[in-house]
């Protein structure tokens, strides 16, 4: 029987909580799409759904399998699912195409370039993975959760997220500059969400600089809590529930 430290169990709980919250948000996006039939809500739902699954599900399964059977899942399998997270950003680019580029005569070219950049990043990632999974990163001593990423992986993920944030901030700035106070409010909420998500993602790249209990404190408080709050705000910013609209627009 494999025994786990308190911080490993806590990490598992955070992963389950993060997955549960984001899956609920994805379902809410899908429901919104079903009600209004606007494709951007479908794209956002798919982004949240695939991104959250590929960042958590394999590690949750790995923990459960290790705890119940003592068997560790192969790193190639774990990293293969993780790699899907950056490819999920393609759905944001489809949303960006509709929300920002709809009147741009070069919209198909721009969207094609954005999607192609992610496909190239994914190709390099999976090529390295199937050559040798150690080119991707290292797992913790028990082999169930990622500990550090290699320079190659960090660079690829950083490029993918840089393209995402560049386009996302373009969308947010457009919302903030509109005369419509409702859209401005959405932009402000999405700006906060993007900052929290950026901090969460950045923290995963610098975890190697922390040791012992500090490593786990950063993992729990910055990586996971910030990401959970970011996705909640992400949903609120895109859908702007009535109670949020009434509460904040009254003050503006």
Blueprint (SSEs and pairs):
Elements lengths: L5 H31 L2 H31 L5 H8 L1 H4 L1 H11 L7 H25 L5 E3 L6 E4 L1 H26 L4 H25 L6 H28 L2 H8 L3
Antiparallel strand pairs: 1-2
Helix pairs in contact: 1-2, 1-9, 2-3, 2-5, 5-6, 5-7, 6-7, 7-8, 8-9
Describe the structure.
This protein has a single domain, classed as Rhopdopsin 7-helix transmembrane proteins. The protein is 78% helix and 3% strand. A hairpin with a 6-residue loop joins strand 1 and strand 2. Strands 1-2 form a two-stranded antiparallel sheet. The N and C termini lie far apart (58 Å). By secondary structure, it is mainly α.
As for the CATH topology, it is: Rhopdopsin 7-helix transmembrane proteins
Helix content: over 70%
**Distance between the amino and carboxyl termini:** 58 Å
Kindly report the average pLDDT value: 92
Number of domains: 1
Strand content: under 5%
Overall outline: globular
Find the structural class using helix and strand composition.
Answer: mainly alpha
Report strand order across the widest sheet: 1-2
List segments where confidence is low: pLDDT < 50 over at least 5 consecutive residues: none
Order of helices and strands: HHHHHHEEHHHH
Topology, number of strands = 2
């Amino acid at each position: 029987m494999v025994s786990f430290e308190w911080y490993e169990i806590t990490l598992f709980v955070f992963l389950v909580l993060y997955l549960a919250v984001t899956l609920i948000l994805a379902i809410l996006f899908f429901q919104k799409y079903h009600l209004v039939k606007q494709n951007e809500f479908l794209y956002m739902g798919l982004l949240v759904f695939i991104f959250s699954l590929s960042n958590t599900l394999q590690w949750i399964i790995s923990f459960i399998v290790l705890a119940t059977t003592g068997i560790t899942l192969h790193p190639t399998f774990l990293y293969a699912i993780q790699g899907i997270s950056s490819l999920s950003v393609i759905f944001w680019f489809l949303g960006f195409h509709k929300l920002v580029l709809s009147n741009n005569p070069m919209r198909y070219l721009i969207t094609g370039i954005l999607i192609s950049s992610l496909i190239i990043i994914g190709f390099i990632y999976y090529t390295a993975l199937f050559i040798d999974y150690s080119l991707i990163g290292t797992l913790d001593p028990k082999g169930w959760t990622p500990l550090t990423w290699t320079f190659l992986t960090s660079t690829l993920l950083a490029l993918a997220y840089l393209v995402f944030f560049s386009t996302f901030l373009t969308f947010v700035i457009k919302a903030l500059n509109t005369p419509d106070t409702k859209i401005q409010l959405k932009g402000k909420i999405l700006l906060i969400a993007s900052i929290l998500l950026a901090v969460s993602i950045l923290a995963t790249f610098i975890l190697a600089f922390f040791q012992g209990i500090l490593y786990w404190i950063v993992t729990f408080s910055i990586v996971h809590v910030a990401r959970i709050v970011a996705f909640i705000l992400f949903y609120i910013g895109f859908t702007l529930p009535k109670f949020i609209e009434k509460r904040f627009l009254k003050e503006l």
